[in-house]
Each structure stands twice: as C-alpha cells, then as structure tokens.
Design goal:
Number of helices of chain A: 11
Radius of gyration of chain A: 22 Å
Strand content of chain A: 15-25%
Oligomer: homooctamer
Strand order of the largest sheet of chain A: 6-5-7-8-9
Distance between the termini of chain A: 18 Å
C-alpha cells in the first residue's frame, strides 16, 4: 500500500505531473510508517481480525469513549482491557455491539475476522481468586484467534488435580500459568511438561505476598527452563504472547 | 515403552505368572516417568541433539566434574553455563573435547546433532558491558540448533544504530533484547517491530540500577505487547526460550 | 480403597473379565490419588473430623457458597477463613448450622468429630490489635482438635504480664506468638521457654512497620533457636501447624 | 534596601542618635533576609509575575483558604497545586477570580504579569493516563511565563507518532517527558534529540510498576546524557525547572 | 536443685542459722534460673546430650576459642555453626576431639549422649548448590539425636526424582525442605504429603533471587498448610526445630 | 514493699508459722513485680501525674472504652493517642471530662498532676501537612509536664523563617523536628544548634516519599551528631522521649 | 544535505536515469540519519569541541582501547569516565596525550576546542568522601567548555561554611550539589538560592544509607522547587546537564 | 567576643575612625559565626575537652592525615571514628600520642579535658559480634566525659543474663542498646526499665537481616515508649547522644 503510494508519487515525478520540490515535501509528510516501520498496518494486512486494544485503567470514561469513537470507522474489531462495569456501560452507549466479559474485565467490540489457530493454548490457574486474570488471558487469546482451554484451581495445595489433567498439559501447544501467593505453580508445570510456559504472577494473596511481588520473584527465578514472565496481573500480555507463540509456525 | 511394561505385567497377571498382590506392588513401584511425565526422555527422542545443561554457579569444581562424568556416557552433548575459566579447565581434564566460549562463560562438550532451524533469532544488546549475557543467549540458542544473529551496541544513547538495522529487526523470527541500566531498549524494539521479544535485564549499571532491578522493572512494565521477561542476567533462559519459539512451527 | 479398586481390576484381568488393553486404559484414567499421593483422603481416614478449609479472601460470595455446596455432601466439617460478616451471612443461607467467630473472621460449618488432644497449645499475643489474628489461630487449632489457651496483651511494653504467666508458658506443649509492630515478643518467649514457638507477624502498626514487614523480619532473625515463622497475618497457618505439632506424639 | 537600613543605623550611631548597645540589639534583630539571603523578595523584584505556590495535598480546606487570604494582599498571582475540585470550590468563595485547570488539578488565582519567553517548552507524555501530570507541567510552565506545546500519547507502543513529530522535538528549547509504566519514553526522546530533558515518572501502571518506582528507576538509569529526573507525579516541579531552563539565557 | 538451695536456705532461716535480712539478700542474689526460668539447665536435665551451640559468623577466632574453653569443663558436647576451615583449625588446637563437617560448616566437639529418636527426619534439597545448608540441617538434627535421611537434587527442574522417592516422603516424620532460587520445592512437597514441612530458603541463585528474598517470600506465601519458614540459609534453625518436632511425642 | 512481704514470710518461717514447703510455693508464686522489675508502679511513685497511655489504632471502640473503664479507678490521668473523632465520642460517653485535641488526634482524660518542668521543648515542623504529628508531640509533652513551644512551617523551602527564629532554637532545651518529604529539616536544625534533636519523619509527601521512607532514611543518615529518630508519624514517641530528656536533670 | 540526496534521486527519476523500482529501494535504504535524526553530527557542527564519551565500567581494557582507537581518527576530543588507573594506563599506550584526573576517575584524550562559557557552574559537595563524584562533575563540565568553581566540605554538620560562602552561591549560574548520607545539602542550597540545582546523590555513607538510596530519595522529595536529580554517583551526568543549562542562553 | 568585635566597630563608627561604607563592608564580611550561630565555639567554651571528630570511612589516608594536621594546632582533643588499623598507623606518624581502640575502630588523639559526669551510661549489647559497635559507643561516650559501663552478651537467647543484671539496668542514667539480627533486645530493655534507651541496630546477622534492616525496623517499631534509634552500626552517634542526655541536668 505505502509502497504503492511511493511508487505512484515517483511515477508522477517521472511523468512530470509532480515537480521535485513538491515530491520532497510529500515524501517528508508521508506518515512515519511509510518509511519502513509500518508495524500496525502491515500487521493488519497479515492477520486480519487483529483488534485495536485500549488499556482502560487510568483513563476517564470520556477518554475511553472518545478513543473508541475515533477507532470505530477504521477498525472492525476493538478490545478494551481492565474495564470495569461502568466502562462497559459507557462503551455500550456508542457501540451497542459491545460484549462484556465481566470476570475478565474485558470488552470486545465488533467481530473478529479470520480463521482460528488449531493448536491449543492452555490457561492454568492456581486458585479461585486468580480467575479474573486467567480469564483476561483466555479472552485475549481467543480474541486473537486461538483455541483456548481452561485448567483452573490446580494450585499447589491441590496439586493432584494438576496431575489428573496431565493429558491436557501434554496436549497443549502453549501454556499460560496464572498464580498469586507463592507462584510455585509455574515451576511445577514447567518441571512436568516440555512446553513453553508464560507465567503471570497475580496480586492475589496477603501479607508477605506484597501485592504479587512474591509470585513475581518466584516465577523469575524458576529453575526449570522454558518459562518467561509478564507483569503482575497482566493477563492480557500473557494471552497476547501466547497467541504470538501459538501462531508462530502457522501459515498466515 | 512404559505401556509395554504395564501390558506385559497385566498379561502375566492374566496368565497367572504374577499374583495380584505382587502386581499391585509392582505397579506402585513403577518409576514416575512410566506414568506419563517422562519429560526428559521424550524430549530427547523428539529433538535429538538437545544438550544436558549444568548450571555451574554455586557448585564446586568437584561437583561439576562428577556430574559431567555421570552424564557423559548417555549424553552426546552437554552444556555448562555460568562457567568461569577454572570450571572450563577442570572440565577439560575429563573431557578434552570441551570448548569454552569465554565471554558467554559457557562450555560446550561433545557435538550437537540434528539439523538447524532456518529462521533467525536476533540477539540485540544495548551496551558493550551487556555482551557477556548477550553472548550466553547466542551460544545457548546456537547450541539448541538455531541460526543466531547479533546486533550489539544499539542502546538508547545510540538508538540511530538500531534504526539503521531495521531490516535485520524485521527479518528476524524471534528477538532477544539484552539491556542493563534502564532497560528501555526492550520497549523501543517492541514498539518498532511486530516480533516476539524476550527481554533480559542485566546487572550492568551502577547506583539506582540496583543490580538490574531498574532494568527488570522497566521490562516488566513495557507498555508494548509482545514482550516477556526472564531473570536478571539469565542469558541462557532467553536463548532457550527463543529456541523453543523459533522451532515452534517447524516439523520435528 | 484405591488399592481395592486396583485389586479388583487386576482380579478381573486375571479372570479374563477385562482384557489387557482395556485394563491399561483404566489404569491410565485412574485419578491421580490412586497412585499413591492420596493426601486428602488418607488424611481423612487417619484423623476423622479434620475440616475442609476455604480461604475466602479474593473469592466472590457466589464462589464461596458454590464451593460450600459442593463440599457439603462429603464433608461433615467445613471451615472458612478470612471471612467477613457478609461471607458468613451468605453461607448461612445454605448452611444454617454455620457458626461465625467474628473476631477470628472464621466460619465453622458442621461438627468436628474425633477426640481432642490433651496437651495444650498456648496462643500468646502482644497487643489488643493483634487479637483478630490470634483468635484465628485459636479457632483453627480448636477446630483441628486441640485444647487451646489464650495469653493476650503481654507485649513488650507490658512484659511483666508475660513473666507473671510463666507457669502457663512452661505448661504449654506448643506456643503460638502473634505480634505486630516490632514482633519482639516471639524472641522474648523463645528466650524464656524451651518450647517450639510458631511466630505470626501481624500487619498491626504504622509507619516503618510497613504492613508487617518489620515484625516478619524480626521474627525470621530471632537469635533464639526453636522459632519458625508463617506469613504475615496467617493465624490459620499458625493454628494448623501448632495442631500438627501438638498431635505429633499422639496415637491416632 | 537592607543596605539602606544598616547604613541609616550606622549613621545614627555616628550621629549619636542611637547608642552602641542599642545598635547591637538592632543589628541582631534584623530579619534574616537583611543579611543576604532574601531569596523570595529579590526574586520577586527580578521577575514580576512569578506566583506564590501552595501545595494542597495534606492541607485542610480551612488551611488552604487561610493561606490564600494571607497571601492575597501582597501577591498578584497565586497558584495552588494538587488541588481537587473541593479545594477549588473553597478557594472560589474567597477569590472569585480563581481559575481551575481540572485535569492539571491546579488553581490559578489572579493574573500573571510580565512577558512570555519566546522559546518553546515541549511537554511529551506517554499515555492518556499520564495526561494529568503532563497538564500540571504545562499549566505550571505557562503560569511562569513560557510558551508550552503538548505532544501527547506518543508512548513506546505508538512510538511512530513520536517520530512523526520530530520537527516539534527538534524545535523545542526544553523537553519535559511524562511517563509511567516503564518510563522508557524519556530514554527514547533523549536518544533522539540533543535538548535537555526533564523526566517525570508517573504512578500510572499496575503490578510491578510499584506506584511509579519502575518508571523512576528507569529514568534515573537513562544511559543517554542530558536527562534529569524529578519526583514521581511531580508535574509542577518539572514545569518549574523547565521554566528556569527556558528563561536561562533571556534578559530579565 | 534450685529448689534444694531455696529449701536449705529456708531451713537455715527456720533454724536461726541465717537471719532474715541476710536471707532476703541471698534470695535476691540467687541467679536468674533459680526463679523459675531455668531454661538451659532444665533442658539439659531432660535430654542429656544436647550440645551448647556457638554461632561463629562475626566472631573472631580468639573469641570462638575463648568461648569453647569456657564451655568445655561443663559441657560434654559443643557445636559450632557457620564455621569455616580456619575456625575449625583454631578450635582443634584447644580441642583435639573436634570433628569438622566441611560442607555443613559445622564443628562437633565431644560426644553426644543419650539415645536417638527412632522416627526419621527427611532433609530434601533442590539443587547441588543448596547442599551446604541442607547438610547444616542434617548435621544439626543428627547432633540433637535424630535419624536423618537425605533426598537431594530433587528441584523443580528434576521434579520426577521427587516423585520417584514418594515412599521416603511418606515415610518421614518431619520434612525439612532446603531450596534457593524460586523456593517452589517447599510448596510442591507440602502439596504432596501430609507431614510438617520446615522450609529453609537459601541465598542460592542470582539476579532477582536477591540473595534469597525470592525463595523466602515464596515459602512464606505457600498456599499449602503445614509449612513454616526459618531465616535464609538457616540450616541450623531448621535442623533444631525438626528435632524438637521429631522428639515431641517421645518419652524422654 | 515487696521486700516487706518477703521479710514477713521469712519471719513466719523462722517462727514456724509457715513450713518450708509452703514457703517455697509462696516464693514461687510471688508476682513478677515482687522480684524487682515493678516498672509501672515505681514509675508512678516517682513522678505522680504521669498518664496511662492507650494506642487506639487497630482497637475497636468497644475495646478502647473497656480499657478506659478498667484504668479509670486507679489512674487520675489517661491519654489516648491516634484517636479519631469517633473514638473521642465513644470515650466521652464514659468519661465526660475527656478533652479532645483534634489535630493531634489525642484524648486527655482527667487531670495531670505534679509540677511542670521549667525548661522548654521546642517542636519544629516543616510544612502545614506535618502539623497533626507535630501537635501529637506537643500535646504529649505537655501532658507529661513540660513547657512546649511551637515553631511551625519552617521547611526548607522557607528556611529563612527558621533562621528568623534562631533565638527560639537556641533557647530550647530539647528540640523535636517533625518533617515529611525529604526530612532535611532535621539535618538543618542539627547543623545549626547544639541541642539534642528528636527527629520524627512523617508520611507527608507523595511519589518517592514512599509513605515516609524517604524522610526516615534521611533522618537516620543525618551527618550532624545529636540526632535520634523515632518511627514514621510517631509524634507521641517523640513527645515522650523529649519529656524524658527535658526532665533529666530536674529534681523529681 | 539529505534533502540534496533525495532531490538528486528524484531528479534522476524524472530524467529517467533511475527507474521507479530502484528509486523505491534507494529511498528505503537511506541511512537513518538522512531522515532527520542525525543527532551526533548536527551536534558536532553546532558546538565544536564536544567530546565523545566512553563509560568504562563493565568494559574490558581491550574493549576500551579498541573503542578509543576507532574513535580517534574522527574525534579531536575523547573522554573516558569511571576509569580506574589501569584503564588510564591501557589508554596511554595508544594515546600518549591522555590526561588522567585520578580523583574524578576521568581520562581526557586530545584537546577541547571552542570557547568557554563565561557564566559559572558551582559544584558544591557535602563531605570529603563525596569529592570523587564532585570532581567527576567538575572535570566533565570543564571538558564541555564551562568555568567551574568548587565549594567543598560544606555538609550539614558544617553548614556555617556554606553560609560563609553565600556570595559564591549567589554568583553561580548553575549549581551542582553532590551529597551522600542524608543528601540534605541539596535541599538547603535550594532553599537558600534561586538557581537551578542539579542534585547528585552519592553512595557515601553506611547502614541505612543503603548505598545512596537515602540520599536519592531525599533529593527526589526536596520540597524546594528548582531541584532535579541524576543517578547515584552520576557526576558525569550532572556535569553534562549543568553544561547544557549553563550554555543555554549563549550564542553558539 | 563577637559582640565585642561588633561593639568596637560601632564605637569606631561613632568616633569617626571608620566610615559608614567601610563599616557596612566589615559587617557583611564578619564570619558566619558572628551572626549568632556560633555553634562549635560556644560549645567549646561551655564544655572544654569536647573533641573534634573525623569520620574516616570513604576518606583517603592522605585526607585524614591532612585534616588532623589542620585541626591539631587549635584542638587539644581529636577523635577519629570508623578507623581501621592502617588509618591509625598513618595518624601515628604525625601524632605520636594517638591511641587506638582496635575493637571500636576509634583513634583518640590528645587529652580530653574537663570533669567526668557522675551518672552512668550503660551500654548493653546482644551478641559477641555486636561488640565492635558497642565499643564504639563506649569509647565515644567516655571521650565526651562520661562514666560508662558495659553489659555484653545478653541477647534474647541468653536473656536470663540480662535479668541477672537488673541492678545495673536500674542503676544507669541512660542506656544504649546495641543489637543486630532481630534487634529485640532494645524492646526487652525498654519494657523492663524506665530509662531512656538509645537503640543501635547493627549489620550483624545473615539472610533476612538484610545488613541491619531487620534490626532497624524492629527498633523503630518498638512498642515501649522511651526508645529512639540511630543509624545502623552508628555506635558513635549513640555514644554522642547518650552523652548529651547524661550531661543534661548537670551544671556546666
């Protein structure tokens, strides 16, 4: 596309329709992405259906609505994360097709397009209180075109439930582990299966969990290889990276 | 295999060669890996040439040598990380084919087998002082069967060198970013290209870098999606995970 | 039990009622606990009356109620910790026999069974504000079948009250020390008596107590041997471990 | 002035109108500023129009109003920072000419006097949620007599928008960079342009941003020279320092 | 004994051999232990063979030797912890019967007396580098009269080795878990077996292990009950507490 | 007193009125304070008018009222700290003579007795927001029988006001410095005058003040000798220690 | 210049000398700096004499020498910071004109060119131990073409020496304050004079200075406006920024 | 004195010997101390024998020696703290009367003058490894003219030794408590006796003592009133403040 614009411009120069000074000015005013770093656009060309994403925390309702209105014409699929119910209700006033995933605190607006990857992402979570972040990862990965399975409530205190589901662990292509408190579940999973593990520490816990610091440090120090870590409570980031991994070998 | 052992046992029970009490005892004493979690072996079957890895820090020379002697008969390829020169010299006494990558502080023993992935892993590093960790990632990823390229010394103070190499950024399949100090390079790279980025904070810096804490926190909070983080100075972990990613879609 | 299931299966194999392939499939699908790690069940066999425990923090009322409904048929005794009044009221709607220990923020549902250990657990607390956590330890230890005594308000500023009660200190079998602020009470008690001390730092305090960090570090560094530490505000964990200790030598 | 007072006193001594003992007493009781450190007054003489500033956080409404009433007679221009709406409403009751910059949480009372510096301060912010702090910097710098431009929403995830505005980056005399999360924007800007950069970490983010610590450490460790840092969320301090810089070479 | 001294004194008072004023003075000067807190002596009466313990870190060789000389006449068994080789050599000059456990950095002087508890303490350690602390626990527990077994190198990366040894886990009376890095092993063990677990975080690791902080926080936040924690690298404390537990129900 | 009780007992033993076994029992059951540590009582004898103090934070209204009712009969003067308005109102229901110092969040109940020290304690505070803690120190020191002066709002940004009041600095016997943010005021005061300074860091500030940590560390590292520090926001502790100092040389 | 290259290219397209496809390729391959961010070069054009700077910490001697050899042909003036004596000796072997500022740990190679700014930068330091960092700032600012004065050893404990030098404080155009321990000197200076202050925390101190953290936090929280902060021990950064400020209004 | 100088000047003005302009100049150039803050001199007048103090850490041998040579003519008594043996040896070359207190790492040069306070300062220390800091406090307090007693090795693990010495605790006028690890000794002492306690946390310990942080936080949170804290390992500061307290009521 950009290539096309530049090509047309050069042809116009060649044809004498545009003089050199004007051509320089036009080249300079080409948006940045014309010069080779056209990340977002290229991206959209390659994998249609990828949503624009709005991180809602710290934004006012007015700002969020305004951003969605601005994005709506050009984007068939928009995603709003860390969105509480009020955010959803404000969005619904301008986009009646918005769907709210309450536990995941995620709003999906419009319709994802394109096919879904066949391989499975498994989202494993330790405790009931970790589910909102796990759901954020699930909803994100699904929105990005993946088949996602859940394996919840398999924390260390009930680790036999994890072992009972070993088939699902081995069957997954990518595993996301969501755990607060001591975050040991990531180490256990990585010690059992030979799959890439994306570890999400959560702020679940109390006392010396220090709002997720304990789980974060634990996961960073995981002595089994094949584990990488995202920010505390960053279910979206884990779902996004899991999607990148899962679609790595796929023809696009 | 395990299935075979269990099958034989059941047939013996059926045939009356083994009585039920004895069969229960035998079932209980089956080694763990017989029950489905035989990670390491399976692994080795799938992708021949994968090395056994020894993390040398905190181990005595005697312990390291003993582990290598124990692993040598069964393993064609062994890798020792965080190995200083004394470690290498001790290893060479028992394995004359050991090769030392001094900057990477890594010893490779024996010969990797199997083919090399075609797609490229690009290891980007910020400053000269980050190179030992970057090299650890490079040597690891190469040892695991990947084509690896280096893009060094492209830290924020010389960020134009990064932009000059945008072709290489776009050409890579997976990117490892190694940076100390403020660790911003991971964010810059992730903001420019749509490739999975594995960020490695290093302990390079002084003062409020707090031995890599500044870079670690910076990378964890990266606001561009598609970035995951490993432990401070964990070049091995980054190289390993990059290899998993890079070989994700490949037929094995 | 599990043993019984496996035995019956093998006998069926022997008798030709089940063929070998089917037997392998059945063995593989046996739940994890059949293979030797049946912690919870074994446990219940050994010491009847042990409750199932639900940690309420971070769970919604709906989730808590659902868990209790699921556990109710099989469990005579259920315990819910970190439960505020709303949790209790939600529980009471489905289990009218629920009893609320308000200060301990603990709900007991159903009736503990089995005998009570004769030896005494002494729960010592420093200040009035530490009592909720101390009560959580007391209620927990009682629920697990122990005789528990309280020795409250014997903090360092009123340490003579501790000395006045030396008979009770010496008479106890296990001592739980609950203290916030500087947490020195654990050291004082451990310096006076030769009994195992379980130290519980609390988040009581202000300023440089940093929500219990001061007490936690103080207790971890206790220079008197015989002291172990649990998480900040973890009265349940202390009560539980005290119970394990107290019943250690008892015939079960 | 002070010199005058001392001179008159000495002349009175010389003339015998004041005796020596009395002169010593008077000299001793001269207010501090008479002795050379008359910062605020001198200041006001040099650059008329400089406001008095009240930091509202932690002050009661009554205290704030009282301070404004006390300052009003002598000060033509007063500024109140970190002022929420209630503060503004309380101020307006005594000063109907108060103007509220809601996003900046800043109240301006009275009229700035004096000319405006010609050179431009550019305030760059990373994300929408950083705008309140960015606005605080903008309002402050404007109130101190500067031409200020905004360049918002150019965080790393949308870094191409930064590059699209390179003319504005190069055109500015002083740049303020406001960023939360990983704070990398300060490094990127400082790596691109050769202008003094005042970095303001914000508490925007979650998880391991630790209320702005990640951004703060990142900015302090910026490996590009020409970057200095102010306190987390200190938009006022950045605007103030930017003003000092911007007016450095100007005739006053 | 003390009781005897007081009794004799009172009988002397009764007999008129000691007058009341003198008796008061004598009562006041009775050593502390006479007044009821005679911890160490009582202790020694109850379980002969308990050693005196010297913590060597931070003490000069001269101080250590002097303490041992002072203790030697009255104590049949002395133990020196955190003792490097130089300490041992200095001790051997005054006590030729000193035995050095090099890996445990522990010196045993003299001969433990009394019988050994029958039940077993199992010391589990994660990695080779954790062994010095594990050995400190082992040597301590043995010195205090316990049967101790080792289960080493069963960290999460090789967790199948842990499962292979489940019989030993179930057979132990008390379990000590020694682990650095992410410290997840304590959680895994506590999730598998219903035995009291004493968790010892070690300073083994690098980067974000922050000298054992990661393992410490992880262990404190263990979501499986039945886990208590001692200071980082405190193998002695764990061995000591394990001994107290192990001998809890034993007749003494 | 205690001496009297012991004397009488010994005389009874001598007279044969009490036999030796009974005497031993009585000696053992003497309350702790009989043995020499009767701190509180002695204290009250020495300096009549000293109040009993209740720290209200973390206590329920019911607990506070109950403690006051228990203390009331024996104590002419009671003090409640960190008491918000609700606490005061609850107290007033049982003690109508309670007086509330609202800014100091302190309730005084009853009438202090005894004379007032002549020398002056000067309480210096940095900013308006520090006044609640400064007032707590003032009210405490006055309640303990001292003449207290205030020197408020002399923070570093208005340090000339401090210099204007040098007479008062030099005239004081003991100085309490209350400051949040960077806490530099303590250093400045200690650098100017040769009086003991008790530094109170406050949680006033934002961002990298980290709830008082910045001020606390600053004060602990004060390079001028003659400065000691109390906990963040501990106005009571500072007032109490200032009182002890101020009355040090006084005849009591 | 770049404009010229693009213009020539377009004219060649127009003239048919270069076809469109080739022209697109050439446009894409233009080096980064052609597009407007040629920071370093522009910079050098504007203010001749600016040195290239090498940060030596973490680099090997070989790497440092190699960098200098590479820079030498094109750069008349090179500066090496955090350079210990060995670094200097290695440099001198390849550049005999290298001059070592030992206390500043800085090597200057070659000759600065261009005029020196007339206005003065004053570098103020608290204690003798802070001098190495202060000297680094001095040497840096001088190397960048400024007149620099020193005011050393005026820490809070000897703050009268600061007041004695008020003329120099008022005479400076920019002030750099270098202080460890509590870092209060920055606040004191900023409270006294109306000049921009660049605060450099140093790692000088012990105990709760936590390697400069106390000074860093103190300086960040400075309640006097006009203070900005650089990294702990970053004398170079402070000298650099001071130079930018000092030359702000100067014709270049 | 200063008063005299000013008086003479004014009289000269009156007499016409000095004209007014010159008088103003002279007044302005009067050294700082003339204006009322003559701390050090006044000090020296009041309590002869007070030493000048040099903090040696971070200073080179040359700097220390130079400072002593500069101070020697005017000061009869000089004290050097945190001085290792090399410092002492360097000092002895220029001052042969220097006396080294090796454990206290303190050098005393010259002879203290003036009388010694009668009341006693008691320095209590927890463990053998805390003695160097305790000795620093002792030597400091003695050098400042106080009678000092030692009560060492009375840490919590041997707290009965503290109780055995209650007479000495009650007999002291001021108590300094020096303790590392958990620092509980300060709380215990403050809970037992009604004397002002100056708490010195030490960096003695390991693991979660975090170089004295645990002891520091513990002491700051001491719930017994009458405790103030100095920096970690600051024996000098404690000895100095204890001296100020001890001499508070004394005629000077």
């Amino acid at each position: 596309m950009d290539r096309e614009r530049i090509k047309r411009l050069l042809e116009d120069v060649k044809a004498g329709k545009v003089d050199v000074t004007e051509a320089i000015r036009l080249l300079k005013s080409l948006p940045y992405e014309d010069l080779g770093f056209a990340k977002i656009d290229t991206h959209r060309e390659l994998r249609t259906g990828y949503p624009e994403v709005i991180f809602c925390k710290g934004k006012t309702l007015e700002q969020i609505v305004k951003i969605i209105e601005r994005l709506s014409p050009a984007n068939k699929f928009i995603m709003a994360t860390k969105a509480d119910k009020k955010v959803y209700e404000a969005i619904r006033k301008v986009r009646t097709d918005a769907v709210y995933h309450e536990m995941a605190k995620t709003v999906l607006i419009g319709q994802r397009q394109g096919k879904t990857a066949e391989k499975t992402i498994l989202v494993v979570s330790a405790g009931t209180a970790d589910q909102p972040i796990a759901e954020e990862a699930v909803v994100t990965a699904e929105a990005l075109g993946n088949t996602v399975e859940r394996l919840y409530d398999v924390g260390v205190a009930g680790v036999h439930r994890l072992f009972d589901n070993k088939e699902r662990l081995f069957g997954a292509n990518v595993i996301v582990v969501v755990a607060g408190m001591e975050g040991a579940l990531a180490s256990v999973v990585a010690g059992l299966v030979d799959k890439p593990v994306i570890a999400v520490p959560t702020s679940v816990g109390y006392g010396a969990s220090f709002d997720g610091l304990a789980a974060l440090l634990s996961m960073l120090n995981c002595c089994a290889p094949g584990v990488v870590v995202v920010n505390i409570d960053n279910g979206f980031g884990a779902g996004y990276f899991a999607s990148v991994l899962n679609q790595m070998g796929e023809a696009k």
